[in-house]
Amino acid sequence: MEKKKFLAGCVLIMSFVMAFIFPSFTPACFAATYNLSFATFRPPTDAFAKPWLLPMAKELEERTNGQVKMTIHWAEAVGKGRDQFNMVKGGVADMTDFPGVWMPGKFTLSEVNSLPLAADEPLNILKAMNIISKKGYFDKQWGEVEVLGWHVTSPLVIMFRKIRPETIGDLAGLKTRGSGGYISEYLKAMKMVPVQVLPPDAYMAWQTGVVDAWVHPFAAMVKYKFIELPTRSILDTKLGVIGNAALIMNKKKFASLPPDIQNVVREVGAKYCEVYAGVGVDEDELTIPKLKAANIEIFKLPPAETAKMKAMALPIWEKYIADNEAKGLPGREVATEFVKALRQLGENPPYNP
Fold this sequence. Notes:
- Strand 6 (175-177), helix 6 (181-189) and strand 7 (193-194) form a beta-alpha-beta unit.
- The chain has helices at residues 2-21, 49-63, 84-90, 122-133, 139-142, 181-189, 202-208, 220-223, 251-256, 259-293, 303-325, 331-344, and strands at residues 34-39, 68-73, 95-99, 146-151, 157-160, 175-177, 193-194, 213-216, 233-235, 245-249, 297-299.
- The strands form 2 sheets. Strands 7-6-8-5-9-11 form a 6-stranded mixed β-sheet, covered by helices on one side. Strands 2-1-3-10-4 form a 5-stranded mixed β-sheet, with helices on both faces.
- The protein is α/β, with parallel strands linked by helices and 353 residues long.
- The chain is globular.
């Protein structure tokens, strides 16, 4: 018995010695583990939880053979959503998905992906952002954290409570809940009146007529339960996306990971940014049959009116350029590179450098 204990002790000591001298031969049971805390404003019932966030955590663990474990802190459990950029920057949390709109004026260059009528396919906006990100345009404004990828929603449409507009002129004067930023500037260009409505107040605002129209992806009809209330029509405009959002990680935490695990984190993060974009599109596709069943008309404007909408979008692109150039930032260069990338992907944005 003593001999067996002695031999077991020798094996254990030799394992530690071999791990020190030959780290690449370290047994799996002695491999370091890295716990990543993910803060999110989303509840576990969120439409994106099951198809996006939970699989991302699972794949990170599987592809690192259990070395990376991601713990999700749901529903602002470790801090308000608006504070989560600074939480990740300061190390309170390791990762989050952060909408730049929550810190107005900070991420102005990456607002290029939220400009009106940029693309028909949101995945192309994401791909174009990846192309120009590699040129370092966003490094300064987002450089306090590690950006693993960009998030975009499915295309925005305009929902109408009581009308089915025939022309752009029919939109004038309508009180409209917009998505903020340059999309709201675009609504103003079409003579609509953007009104701020918080998500918890959405149902009441639609029910009581606080707003006449609502700008959001199709799935908002179910998310905010508008489908239960009178709704006349939906203009399928592909107005733009809600973008300028990123999957981010604490820089020190990322730097502490071995290079092979850094690569996995980057690859998985980028993959699930594409998954995120796809989830929104899937939600819309599931919503459209419900809208038709509820006799809500989905329509497009005639080509001549669509051309007018595109012409009205161009000054908003110029405003983005002017706003950034006034701050000494390369707004025109970013817009030019973004459009170049989009055209390579088959899109036709309004801005023509």
